[in-house]
Amino acid sequence: MADWGNDLYTGRRSIDFVGKSKKWYIYSAVIMAIAALGFVVRPINLSLEFTGGSEFRVATQSAPANYEDLATGAVRDIAGAGSSANVSTLGGSTVRVQTEELSADEAREVSGALSEAFDVQGNKVSSNFIGPSWGKSVSQQALRALVVFIVLTTAMMALYYRNLKMALASMIALAHDMLITVGIYSWTGFEVSPATMIGFLTVPGYSLYDTVVVFDHVKENTRAAFANRRMSFDRAANPAVNQTPVRSINTTVIANLPVVAVIIIGFAVLGPGTPPDLSLALFVGTTVGAFSSVFIATPLLVDLRRKDPEVVKLAKEAQKYRARQSREPALATAGAPASAAVSSPVTSPQARETGSSAPSDDAPDASGEAQTVTGRKVHKYAQSSGPRNQPKKTPRNRRGKE
Predict the structure, then answer these.
(1) 1: Cβ contacts below 8 Å, ≥ 6 apart
(2) Which of 134, 147, 264, 298 is the most buried (most CB within 10 A)?
(3) What is the spatial distance between Cα 186 and Cα 358, in angstroms, rounded to a whole number?
């Protein structure tokens, strides 16, 4: 795993995440369609806090193996054969029974029936009524908080990346994560409680964290591409995605280790409640978010910016650069005649620095004489710099001057 991640980061191997964007879109569309279908085929299993009803708790030394049959039978004996009961254990010794709303007389009779069924004293059975107004209030506040979060996050990311399409791509990936997460709850029948709603509100933070990590690499690579004009936008964005999968996987695994521990302990020992409900939502959301940040967010960003004028211009210039690069090896391998190499003009140091092929001042022509910029021919044995044709100083000359 470490070698594979190092090869992706250094570029020894590469996965075409951006080039295969249509494949990822198809996979995600199928998953989202299945998730949305779950809302119709199997509606979300809302807890008693959202639907309202009566709840009974039976304190026993140890819940018997057939506690579900005992509790369901006691409820149906009083409320009728068509009544339903949601039975679970809390901590292995307390049996929780949730039913639809019952009258005060029916609640007392069900408490007595449960006391007889589990062979406990009457004071070991507690009952209370939970109205749906509290759950409705929690749902409204959660949706309001989600809307405020999306608006503020979109504005912040647009200002940070100085590009609204980056923020739009991250929000679409976030909606993708939320839909799949809720769809999994719908199909599996997991109970959605107020703690689960809190978990749903926490999922966007994990999802955006992975997306921001990827987008930071995309920003750095595309900024270099716009500077040197040698690589198109999509070619610069794909290495950024290759540099982050291992980090996303490691982050998700490390984040989910304590979450999985809470889920196992919660369902095996504690029973339904706030810790397992919250942890399950986090586990599903973070796992889905790791997928979207790599396979959805960046390919979607490239597609959204594909028709931007600066991106189109960059693609044309990068194509011209690649064409020049492909021609240069061909010219180098073709070679040139020896006579042409000898008679080729000499390039001045200044021309070599600027990339020009103009001849220098002392480049010899066919007659063996150097041709200057002004056109004056200089003999090949003439002194190229310094004082020219100066007489040799002798002692006689020096005495004459004295």
Answers:
(1) 246
(2) 298
(3) 74
Q: Are residues 76 and 161 in the same domain?
A: no
pLDDT in tens, 275-289: 777 788 888 888 888
Taking the C-alpha atoms of residue 187 and residue 179, their distance in angstroms, rounded to an integer, is 12
CB 369 within 8 A of CB 377: yes
**Residue in this structure with the two tokens 């900024």, named with its chain if needed:** 223
CATH number at 83 reads: 3.30.70.260
Which token pair is 389? 């044709």
CA trace torsion 291, 294, 297, 301 (10° rounding): -160
Is residue 27 a part of any domain in this protein?
yes
Average pLDDT over residues 228-232: 88
Do 98 and 197 fall within a single domain?
A: no
Number of domains in the chain: 2
Q: What is the pLDDT of residue 44?
A: 83
Model pLDDT for residues 247-267, shown as the tens digit of each residue: 778 888 888 888 888 888 776
Query: What's the pLDDT at 371?
Result: 44
Domain assignment of residue 92, given as a range? 53-130
Q: Assess if residue 321 is contained within a domain.
A: no
Q: Can you tell me the distance from the alpha carbon of 29 to that of 125, in angstroms, rounded to the nearest whole number?
A: 49
159 domain-assigned: yes
Of 314, 339, 360, the one marking the end of a domain is: 314
